[in-house]
Amino acid sequence: MSAFPVSSLDPFADDFLSAPYPFYGELREAGPVVWLERYGLWACARHAEVQAALSDWQTFSSAAGVGIDDFRRTKPWRPPSLILEADPPLHTRSRTVMNRALSAKPMAALRASFKEAAEKLADELVARGRVDAIADIAEAYPLSVFPKAVGLGREGVENLLPYGAMVFNAFGPRNAHFEAAMAEAAKVVPWINAQCGREALSPVGIGAIIWAAVDAGEITAEEAPLLVRSLLSAGLDTTIVGIGNAIYAFATNPSQWQALREKPALVRPAFDEVLRWESPIQTFFRTTTCAVEIGGVEIPQDAKVLLFLASANRDPRRWDEPERFDVNRRAAGHVAFGAGIHLCVGQMLARLEAEMLMTALAARVERIDIVGEPQRKPSNSLRQFASLPVELIAAR
Ligand code: QZP
Prior knowledge:
By secondary structure, the chain is an alpha+beta fold. The protein has one domain (6-394): CATH 1.10.630.10. 47% of the residues lie in helices and 12% in strands. The strands form four sheets. It has a six-stranded mixed sheet, sandwiched between helices. It binds 4-(2-methylpropyl)benzoic acid. Residues 81, 83-84, 167, 230, 233-234, 238, 281 line the site of 4-(2-methylpropyl)benzoic acid. 4-(2-methylpropyl)benzoic acid (QZP) binds next to helix 11.
């Protein structure tokens, strides 16, 4: 007998990763906090506790890493991020600079070119009809706008997605997904690091705004490349997966696509509903800085706590009919972008990409039919597809 619920589930095993929602239900029902004996760590799967932990950085620290490894015991695979894997005061300094680089003003400057790229791609896609919604839509659009917005050149951009696979698999245990992603490290990591220097970046992009903070004395010349690296780590896979999941959500819920077509102003709230319903980032960790009680269970200091974001976003304690994808629901309050001081700093950029692309598609596409078996791409933290064959039926 134990005073707290115990589960033998392995959230990084393939059966769990390929169909996580029934397991999330099991973990939510087990209690507000569950001991995962497979890894010897605590987990929260309900919205209230996930939200509360994310909102309390003093107790639930990010400085020991937000993956399964405790950076104080296991050497991180790369120098830690100065924003993701940091607490105040370091986090605050980095965040100030990143807030500016990803704020409304630089986003407004990108809007016209993002719109043009979305409309051009949407025209081409409709002309083709049958496409892979992952390679041809979800990857193609961010790859056409994001590297340029950061200020990267064209050479070597094929390294960005392999690097993302490393970043997102490294949050989990050293399983086969981790090893497969890391197989390319020797080629990919040096390229990524080389793009973070001032001379590698265009003088007008988001990267240049970060470097300008060195001149202003806000960060050092040693810190700037690591913050540019954060853009490259966090900015591409996340939006690709969000857009891919959006296409899947609308293809499997044609009435919701019709609702969006009839009322284009729904595009922004609809993207929040996509993120709630099929959250790109499924899991995240924090590390306790002191003993803390969660739902009557005392969690010790220095414990890794696994937060199931995607489960919180489908918790029936928080959402009516959480399994239903409904673009008219109030999805605000989902934790797909996190919560608290680490709330996604790039969300305006992600929302801009989603808005431009989904608006262009909604104006041209009557229906999205799935015409082949969707293939999942297992990852230790992303819920994503490898391919999603669709036919775009043109509006007439
Ligand atoms: C990845 C970094 C969903 C987030 C974990 C994405 C992410 C954010 C930041 C960084 C990496 O700072 O390297």
